[in-house]
Amino acid sequence: MSNSAKIPVVMKDKKSEQTIFLEANLHIPQRSEGIIVFAHGSGSGRYSPRNQSVAGKLNEDGLATLLLDLLTADEEKIDNQTRQLRFDIDLLSKRLIAAIDWIMNSPDIKIPTLGLFGASTGAAAALVAAAERQDVVSAIVSRGGRPDLAGKDILRKVHAPTLLLVGGNDEEVLKLNENALKDIKAERKKLTIIPGATHLFEEPGKLEEVARIASGWFRCYFLIKKHNGNKQK
Predict the structure, then answer these.
(1) What is the number of other CB atoms lying within 10 angstroms of the CB of residue 22?
(2) Which residues, listed in sequence order, are joined to residue 37 by a DSSP beta bridge?
(3) Which of 2, 169, 177, 215 is deepest in the core (most CB within 10 A)?
């Protein structure tokens, strides 16, 4: 099943409250054992060719995917000029949490296990969401992400198995990920370096490698959760 979705998010400040809707693309293969929510720092996460490529591999492997825009169209126009909203981790994480809650409360999406795939600053938002929804998020993968932007206090609250994928030639981001990995609380955590890849993994075969490794990580820990759940019954 593939369709578009509009995810409601209630925005509050001291004076008012309004509901906005995030645009998303949902794909659910038959007999899916888990769903992966993609978090992209800049506006059009659902149209990112890299996210779509990774999502396609996950779908082939039997995982459902939700690709969504964490910014509205108007916000994206502003962010393209200022580049500020993509670094507003509080804003991005609240919207990602709203998407997670929408999935878990949807009568049409009956999938027992959920994971997060974060790219760039979206990785920080994914880690914040994982810390806030510990009972829901079963695994996390970051691609060329900025986990450091989540902050040490948040990283110490992350218990879901976490995989950080970084290009070997992305030296600055690699250092940031190495330091962030030390603060992540999860027992199962790993930093994997993709040799010869730069920040966007544009080199031939590198994004395919990301997709293959990410799929393995999600399916492994979804299976472990399912096994543990069956043991408790």
Answers:
(1) 21
(2) 66, 116
(3) 177
